[in-house]
Design a protein that fits this description.
The protein has one domain. Helix content is 26%, strand content 26%.
């Protein structure tokens, strides 16, 4: 293992990630610094740290390119719009993808099938069959790699369970092109957020100390949260104030 990979492995361990963990990652690849084959080295180190018993997950969201005017989602070719690391992982050997036109997730490892296979049953982005909703069931963790804690798609699943008043937007008919050549047609309700700005960074300030860790992965400031705590704390605060995790905008 080269020096950068050794540092990465050590940094991941200090953040509380262990063999057998099921880890969902939000990321900014550029925050890691510049070095050759960044995405490949990061993915290989993460998979090595998690081991065969663990699972690596990354969102492969496509809401900017799959929409009412371009409603086709292809399981194999539709790119991720949430960063270079997620797009590299999407095409990584052996990686599987959940089926959703705008909020798919890619995964590799022991629990990938369980976490990904039923997403097609949902009619919303992050419903009860989504990997975001299932992650707490396997005592999963969410790692924010150099991107802050604002881009937290798991909180959409929390909002869907709570049915936040600002959450949903229009219904859109999509064509789903599967890897096996089959084509499906299905209508989904998209997220709306009209007039509101997402403020999931507030979650970091209300979690119990034992429910998260902070540190660095190379140059990137990193936070790891327990998925269970995200759900429990998120629901608790939404019950107190349905608009706690958003700001009104003009």
């Amino acid at each position: 293992m080269d020096e950068i990979s050794k540092r990465l492995s050590s940094d991941i361990y200090r953040l509380g990630v262990r063999r057998g963990d099921h880890l969902l990652i939000h990321s900014s690849l550029n925050a890691m610094g510049r070095f050759p084959n960044r995405a490949e080295r990061i993915v290989k180190v993460l998979l090595d740290c998690l081991g065969e018993e663990g699972t690596l997950l990354m969102p492969s969201l496509s809401y900017t390119t799959v929409h009412k005017n371009q409603p086709i989602f292809n399981e194999l070719t539709t790119a991720s719009c949430v960063g270079g690391l997620t797009e590299f992982f999407r095409a990584y050997p052996g990686v599987k993808r959940s089926i959703h036109p705008t909020h798919s997730v890619c995964g590799l490892g022991a629990k990938a099938d369980f976490l990904l296979k039923d997403h097609l049953k949902d009619e919303t982005p992050c419903g009860p069959y989504s990997p975001f909703a299932k992650l707490p069931l396997v005592k999963g963790k969410i790692l924010f790699l150099g991107c802050g804690t604002r881009p937290n798609t798991s909180m959409h699943a929390v909002e869907e369970k709570f049915i936040s008043p600002y959450l949903f937007g229009e219904r859109v008919a999509h064509e789903i092109q599967l890897a096996n050549g089959e084509t499906l047609n299905k209508t989904y309700q998209r997220h709306g957020f009209k007039g509101y700005e997402q403020r999931y960074d507030r979650l970091f300030n209300i979690l119990e100390l034992g429910d998260y860790r902070t540190g660095n992965m190379l140059e990137a400031k990193t936070v790891v949260m327990e998925a269970r705590a995200v759900w429990e704390t998120g629901i608790q605060y939404l019950q107190q104030d349905p608009f706690y995790f958003v700001d009104k905008v003009n």
